[in-house]
Amino acid sequence: MKRFHSLAELAPEATRDLLALAARLERASEPRALAGRQLGLLFLDPSLRTLASMQAAMARLGGTSVVLSPGRGSWPLEHRAGAVMDGAAAEHVREALPVLGGYFDALGIRAFASGADLAADLADADFAAMTALAGVPTINLESALDHPCQALADWKTLDDLGIPTHGKLVLSWASHPKALPLAVPAAVLHMAAARGMEVVVLRPDAYALPEPVLARARTAAARTGGRVTETANRREAMEGAHSLYGKSWSSPLHYGDPETEKENRKRLRDWTIDLDWFDGAAAAARFLHCLPVRRNVEATDAVLDSPRSSVVRQAHNRLWAQMAVLHRLLGGER
Q1: Which residues contact 304 (CB under 8 A, 6 or more apart)?
Q2: Over the stretch 50-88, which tens digit does the pLDDT of each residue have?
Q3: pTM of the predicted structure, to 2 decimals
Q4: Do the bridges between strand 38-43 and strand 106-110 make them parallel or antiparallel, or are there none, so unpaired?
Q5: Which residues contact 94 (CB under 8 A, 6 or more apart)?
Q6: 185-207 pLDDT, tens per residue?
Q7: What class is the 162-309 domain?
Q8: Using the 8-state DSSP alphabet, how is residue 257 labeled?
Q9: Cα separation of 201 and 96, whole Å?
Q10: Domain boundaries, the chain
């Protein structure tokens, strides 16, 4: 494996290999597998689980890592082509990334969506440009349109919970005070389709996912026998669901328009996931969320503190999934 940018880039057997390795490393770590290897972690945006789990994963395999947070301990970075750098940014990625590539065996990069230009964010152009400059293997720690580390951990969580390969996953929009990126919903949708699941996107009318995101998932579903649909009907969506994955995202109709987005969200406060969402045929469904989760906004205490909540297991699986990625990327022994 030369890079880890998206599950969509991996052959099915490569994904299965990573999942099997993650399960094996959870049972028995290999503390010398990456001895002497160095990982650089470039965080252009904040993190808790991704930052901590990547450092812990590298340490458990015997390697070392260095965290860089531009503007908070290192120079602010500029990424725009042709920028006149007379503002806060003191360094451009065109110099910074090749330099970092010379220091490390691999680089992990986290760079969120702009939230202003939907076409540019769907193209994930900034992340692609930065990784092209690195000169070493790169890992997507969340970009504008993907979060493969989260998606791989989520797949492992579904396996751990015994949720059928062709079971039903509902990816539901949830109430949130802020417009959030498309990366996690896009990654989760593709992951579940690639697993062969029936995936229903439950969302208000203004929050239908962009067609390129749906098309990628439908292509994966066609290969695996899965299915991807969208609806605004909660009862219809939850019928027979094995799992409900809560996550908020920005409205593609009002992308980059914060005032309209804010007014929309005020009218959608009843999209807080509560226990009554699981009534009837979805009574045994498990609740998933990538975290951080805003309690009693996205999901109630009653859901998050119930036995059906698997959010902590998901977060723990970030460690084992990322250990598997690092093991394969940096040459750990098979």
Answers
A1: 287, 293, 295, 311
A2: 999 999 999 999 999 999 999 888 899 998 889 999 999
A3: 0.96
A4: parallel
A5: 133
A6: 999 999 999 999 999 999 999 99
A7: alpha beta
A8: -
A9: 39
A10: 7-146+318-329, 162-309
